[in-house]
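Q: Sequence in, structure out?
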Amino acid sequence: MNTARPDSIALFCLTPGGVALAQRLRDLVPLTCFTSEKLLQPGFIPFGGSFARTVEQAFSEYSALVFIAATGIVVRVIAPLLNDKLHDPAVVVMDERAEHVISLLSGHLGGANELTRQIAQLLNADPVITTATDVNQLAALDTLAAKLDATLLDFRQTVKTINQMLVSQKRVGLWWDRDFTQNAESYDTRGFIPVDNLDVLPALDALVCVTLRDDLPTQAIPLYKLVPKRVVAGIGCRRDTPPQTVAKLLNQQLAENHFDPLALRAIGSVSLKQDEPALLELAQRCQIPFNIFSVDQLAEHEKRFPASEFVRHTVGVGSVSQPAAWLMSNGNLVGNTLREQGVTITLGVSDRC
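A: Exactly. Output:
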């Protein structure tokens, strides 16, 4: 998702007062500061051609944009660039006297609300946040999803439905699968009704379940799965294996271990396979990283697993899928390795958000 990262924030200032505030703020927060040629100060970057053109470029390169400017100017310059809440960066606007910090765009998923609070606290300013869940001091499903690095089927509509239910004082339950109960209290769940047992539900209008499972007991109320992206797959395959073969076998392996396909976080293989069409297509279709490991990296863990001399002769190490999955999951492998049609797939579960 597009959550704002501290190392990826661009700041734009248009006046001498804005430059002074930017200088003050960048001592507190990692920022890349842009301004006009005539206002340029050491460490600032001049607009590339124009203010609007620079903003357009930054919109796709940074996870957050902070403007020390009038809100109307910012709205006009970003309006042609807007895509959707899943991809647009966080946009925060503040006045040059640092009286108000406004969360303008991507408040939840993009992290603009959180960034607004952070900047306002640093500058002793007034944070202006207008999202309904925040105004009503409630959690938001999209914020919870971002914190968990999780996703849902029909993400946009589901988030809209659940958040609307929360602000309408509907009874929305929240159940955490056993893999996530230990850290559940560290997340903002205000407004959700805790559910401990799926077999004995309190009176609810809907239920959200945080789980990796592909199947849950049928309920009499609407049930929505919030699926953290934790599953990794180490994959080895013969050269030019058809993409549909790899995809089918991966889905088979996920189903065998009762994982929801949405839980897939990344795939990985040996460096020799970095241009393997089937793996590149799989990563692109699932919109997940394709992690590449050198022979030396895999060889460090080769002794943990059965080795194939044919594989060693072909790629330089006796096993690919198992050590790759081991590295991506920090040793937390799950189930048996699949070996079919010249493809090997090993699954692991990462504990990282």
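The domain at 9-130 is CATH 3.40.50.11220 (Rossmann fold).
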